[in-house]
Amino acid sequence: MEQGSLMPLWATPIYHNKITGDEFDEIQKELYDIINNVKFEEVNEWGSHSHELTENAFSQNILYNNRCMKTLAFIHNCLMDYIESVNAPPVQYIMDGAWITKTKKGKQAYPHSHGFSDISGVYYINTNGKDGNLVFTNIHDGFNNNIIYNSIGGASTAPLETGLIMMWPSNLRHETQENTTDNERLSLSFNVNFARNGFKIDFGDDS
Question: What's the whole-model pTM score?
């Protein structure tokens, strides 16, 4: 009998890209201008080992508020690249949240998802590559009592590099491992929602 083959069905598409050159420098300047002028705070409900976020992280878009046009353009281009790669139609969207995370030594992000959005993403502003990787939970974890699902493994670790952007479906559970180094990792996180029937996007005042 000949060797059979496998058909990997319904893989989860995770997008990644890296910015370099002058565009990288422009984006870094926009983001560090924010970092140098904002306060970071812990979320009490998350415990003392959790990372810090910019103030009022989930009630504003820090990129819109600070008119970070280079960063927004870069994210837009990556977002269009992402949805085109999965054959999704280009439709109107809004980035309904964006904040900056500071992860000091001994801190981490516990498993969670951003399930009320369509796409979530992260851009690494500063990392030494060893200060706590992003880890995605296997979407089949609920079936791990099955010998086949159990054999394909559990969580998957994502790359970690300054200038790297990643995007994924928002309901995918993820976490960041503990930062065991002295480097303070800085990252930008954001959520995106797309327009659809019955769902109206309010773009607000663009003036």
Answer: 0.90
What the block records as the tokens of 89 is 């139609």
Domain ranges of the chain: 15-194
Name the E strands within the chain. Answer: 15-18, 40-42, 52-54, 93-103, 109-112, 119-126, 134-136, 156-157, 164-169, 174-176, 185-194
Q: What is the mean pLDDT of each run of 10 residues along the chain (207 residues)?
A: 86 94 98 96 83 90 96 96 90 92 94 91 98 92 83 87 97 95 97 78 45
The answer to whether 145 touches 125, Cβ cutoff 8 Å, is: no
Residue 70's contacts (CB-CB under 8 Å, 6 or more residues apart) are 23, 26, 27, 30
Buried-exposed string 126-140: b where 16+ CB fall within 10 A, e elsewhere: bbeeebbbbbbbbee
pLDDT score, position 201 = 52
Phi, psi of 31 (to 5 degrees): -75, -40
Domain 15-194: assigned CATH number: 2.60.120.620
pLDDT of residue 195: 85
